[in-house]
Amino acid sequence: MNFLLIFILIPMLMMVGLFFANNRKQINLITLSGSVLLLLSAIGLTFLYLHQRAIGNTAEMLFITDVPWYPAFNIHFLVGVDGISVIMLLLSSIIVFASVLVSWKIDTMPKEYFIWFSLLSAGAFGFFISLDLFTLFFFLEMSLVPKFLLIGIWGSGKKEYSAFKLALMVMGGSVLVLFGILGIYYFSGAESMNLLELAKHTIPLNIQYYLFVSSFVGFGIIGAMFPFHSWVPDGHSSAPTSVSMFLSGISMKLGAYGAFRVAIFLLPEAAHQLAWIFLILAAFSVFYGAFTALAQTDLKYINAYASISHCGLLFFAFLIFNETAITGAFLQMISHGLITALFFATIGMIYSRTHTRMINDMNGLMKVIPFIGVSFTIAGLASLGLPGFSGFIAEMTIFVGAFQETDLLHRVLTLIAATSIVITAVYILRVVGKVLFGTITNKHHLEFADATWWERVSVIVLVIAIAGLGSAPMLFSNMINDSLQPVLNNLMR
After folding, report:
1. Which long-range contacts (CB under 8 A, 24 or more apart) does 383-387 make?
2. Prediction pTM value
3. In this structure, what are the phi and psi dihedrals at residue 230, rounded to the nearest 5 degrees?
4. Residues 54-100: pLDDT tens digits?
5. Are 224 and 314 in contact (CB under 8 A)?
6. Domain range list for the chain
7. What is the C-alpha to C-alpha distance for residues 176 and 170, in angstroms, rounded to an integer?
8. Which backbone phi and psi does 200 adopt, to 5 degrees?
9. Phi, psi dihedral angles at 486 (to 5 degrees)
10. Does residue 423 contact residue 291 with C-beta atoms inside 8 Å?
């Protein structure tokens, strides 16, 4: 059996095990065991990939499995990975592990909750290893129903409204993606939906325009690029903590990853011709998200708009079309996934104790919940780009790559995007100072208990990953660089 199939098989086995679980102890054992196995598998895959490269395996994709799935349309269950896919699997496994621990004591229908969460995870893992466009779209759609139910049933506040809004907007994005995928297959003249084979075919430029707009906008909706972002604040504010971690840390990355793998890689001429339009939108997304976060008073809304800003950087960097900027984009994918997961985890811990997310209702919490307070501060400092954490190296790589383009448009848009650094520092320091420091004004806050062991483990894993990427980014940047050459060659042909 191909090693990659483990990442789909484990979540499916978790679902089966949960279906037969009879008590909370069994539920926790199954979910924790499954998430640990996923994390260990991702770490093992990373070492296997590095070993293959070290012994001289220069294949574009490794560990390929190709099984006919629907022969009538030459659709195959085709999976494989390059360095980019491997690090996305590693990111996903870390967030799934941390999310399971954060949800350790969920009270409402825990069995059903984790069944849907496992299906959500399987969709993300399958998406990152897919090399057939139909298979990729299949796994993208697999995650839609779990998102809707996890927010609509286990969420809070305007949960039904938020669930429907997210589902309808993401579904609209999926329709555009499907149109783009089918158009690429039909007009390329290829005999299969194999992504690597499709890249060898040339589609007429006048057709590429329509397909690029359709696929890039479709993935842009899923990745929350302005002006297709409005589902994000409502979705995150109503979602349970672990679902917020997953949505921002993984699901939004599906959009950026898909835009790169499909729209840019397979439609390079249209990408070059239309890049300036989406560069303007992406730069404005970076600025708009940060500026809007500055005006929020709800902790989840602050992090949701911050995510719009940081994910806007991904699309911005991809459209620069040079190796440095694109490397920075994937480092930003990992960095933002980890940081936003840590942010939402600590926000959930604070909310479970204070029963409010409004920053004006909190003061001096560092005195009573110091572990959570320090973790929240680390998330904030990493988000604003403090050297030593992952945010710094990712954003600096993007801006260095962007400044390599010397024309006026790129320079101006880069300066606009870079203003987000200052704005981010303002709202992060304001929130940390307001929530954690000062004098406690609500006497009931003096009774809070600090983080439990499962909350501590979740936070520690995320902090180690954030600090590790910030301190030693070369391992991941080398893996990314090894995988970029085929894409760059296609862009420059």
Report:
1. 383/306, 383/310, 383/339, 383/340, 383/343, 383/424, 383/428, 384/421, 384/424, 384/425, 384/428, 384/429, 385/421, 385/424, 385/425, 387/470
2. 0.93
3. -65, -15
4. 888 888 889 998 888 888 778 888 999 999 999 999 999 999 999 99
5. no
6. 3-491
7. 10
8. -85, -10
9. -60, -40
10. yes
